[in-house]
Design goal:
Elements: H1 6-16, H2 27-30, H3 36-46, E1 55-57, H4 61-64, E2 67-72, H5 82-91, H6 95-100, E3 102-104, H7 109-120, E4 125-129, H8 135-143, E5 147-150, H9 155-169, E6 172-173, H10 180-196, E7 202-206, H11 212-224, E8 229-235, H12 240-247, H13 272-281, E9 284-288, H14 290-304, H15 310-320, E10 331-336, H16 343-356, E11 360-368, H17 373-383, E12 387-394, E13 404-412, H18 416-429, E14 434-435
Parallel strand pairs: 2-10, 3-4, 3-6, 4-5, 7-8, 7-10, 8-9
Antiparallel strand pairs: 1-2, 11-13, 11-14, 12-13
């Protein structure tokens, strides 16, 4: 069930008069997809319900040769920028529908935002989750105030059940889509960034399938200053947006990964309205590797004390990967839009990122099984200022000469240069030392 409002009628009328992608249109005609007045109205209406998050100068600026400002949307109550669109969506519902209630069927940031803000507005809210949903997500939705029901083995089962309950009980079934109301709420991010950082040259947003934040904010920024570059970033493994833009319509055939690490980054393109706005107003869409996203998460944790997920880190990943060399020396804002990463995944991501960043390495070597040889190895590591994280010895299955021991050691170093220095020192003393490639 879609929400019909005057904004959607304006959007539908505008879409009907858009020329073919091959033709050129002015910014004025493109902005009719969402009027700037719609975004301004959304900002006024939701100002008491969501945080006006800071957009702060980052210490990462010197490292990447530009003035970087981070818009910290992960500081919203539910840890996601989706709250902006959801709150405006719920506040725009007729009072009769607010009285009956709403229902959602996913464990996404969108559902958690609906659970929280519907409860705050005293709108009955039901969240249907499949039985395989992580317990932490179930608990969070309950704590936000939703009635949570576990049903079905797959997401499709829970969605069908939610639609059935909505039809039988008069609830409004909500799923993340690109109505003008929802996009206007998300577009308030662009409005705030323009106010918070003067003389912006470029703004970087997460893209992927759910490009509503990119599309809505682009509408606001391009209205205020057409010279600001608006850039979207998506995963190299799931170039959903790039493929959809190339095809001229939402691409539902793109294979997506259901792993929770990716979140909305790998989702299917959910609407033609966002796609039209993106195609007309966004200057560039780039793709980054998973390795770049992990290192970006590590940089944000170390330099900003920000614990974010893949969707939150992917914008900075474009700078980490050197995908935007034209921004050197410019003033750039990056939206850090989400911080909902499960704890066990966070541990895995940081461990893997340290390895990719050449700060955790592993080697093996064979030494004589005599008193003092192990202490000589440890003395060498101490002299090179390498921190030993783990050390194992294998005597039984060593294939070299008798009375030797194979030592497998994991150490922490400062950076790539320090790792190379340690490797040279080890090879000089133990020529047969073997390094485990990352």
């Amino acid at each position: 069930m879609k929400i019909v409002s005057r904004n959607e009628e304006l959007l539908r009328d505008a879409l009907s008069c858009i020329p073919q992608p091959s033709s050129r249109t002015s910014l004025a005609s493109c902005s009719r997809l969402i009027r700037f007045e719609d975004i301004s109205a959304a900002a006024f209406k939701i100002q008491c319900g969501v945080q006006k998050t800071p957009c702060m100068y980052s210490r990462l600026s010197k490292q990447y040769g530009m003035d970087i400002y981070l818009k910290k949307e992960f500081l919203q109550y539910t840890g996601s920028v989706k709250e902006r669109g959801v709150l405006y969506l719920l506040m725009s519902l007729p009072q009769e529908q607010q009285r009956k209630g709403v229902i959602v069927a996913s464990d996404s940031n969108f559902s958690m935002a609906v659970a929280h803000h519907a409860s705050e507005l005293r709108v009955p809210v039901f969240v249907i989750l499949c039985t395989s949903t992580a317990p932490a997500r179930v608990r969070m939705c309950r704590e936000y105030g939703a009635m949570v029901i576990s049903y079905g083995a797959t997401a499709k089962d829970s969605q069908l059940h939610a639609r059935r309950l909505a039809q039988e009980n008069g609830y409004l079934y909500l799923e993340e889509e690109d109505s003008a109301v929802y996009l206007s709420g998300l577009g308030t991010v662009g409005l705030e960034m323009y106010e918070q950082v003067p003389k912006l040259d470029a703004v970087i947003f997460p893209a992927g399938g759910h490009c509503g934040l990119l599309a809505g904010s682009a509408a606001a920024l391009k209205h205020l200053n057409p010279h600001i570059s608006v850039i979207g970033v998506e995963s190299e493994s799931f170039p959903v947006l790039q493929q959809s833009l190339k095809a001229g319509h939402p691409n539902d055939d793109q294979a997506c990964n259901n792993h929770h690490f990716y979140g909305d980054v790998s989702g299917v393109c959910f609407g033609s309205n966002s796609l039209q706005l993106t195609g007309k107003l966004v200057d560039k869409v780039v793709a980054v590797r998973e390795e770049d996203i992990l290192i970006s998460m590590l940089r944000l944790l170390e330099y900003e004390r920000a614990t974010v997920d893949a969707e939150g880190a992917i914008g900075l990943a474009a700078l980490v990967a050197g995908k935007l060399p034209e921004l050197k020396g410019k003033r750039v804002a990056v939206v850090i839009c989400s911080g909902n990463l499960e704890l066990h995944l966070l541990q895995q991501c940081i461990a893997r990122a340290l390895t990719l960043d050449n700060r955790v390495c592993r080697f093996s070597l064979v030494i004589s099984d005599c008193p003092g040889d192990m202490s000589k190895l440890l003395e060498l590591l101490a002299r090179e200022e390498a921190r030993v994280l783990d050390i194992k010895q294998e005597r039984t299955f060593v294939t070299s000469e008798l009375f030797t021991v194979e030592v497998m050691c994991t150490v922490e170093t400062r950076d790539k240069m320090h790792t190379a220095q340690l490797r040279n020192a080890l090879l000089e003393r133990y020529p047969t030392a073997a390094w485990t490639e990352r």
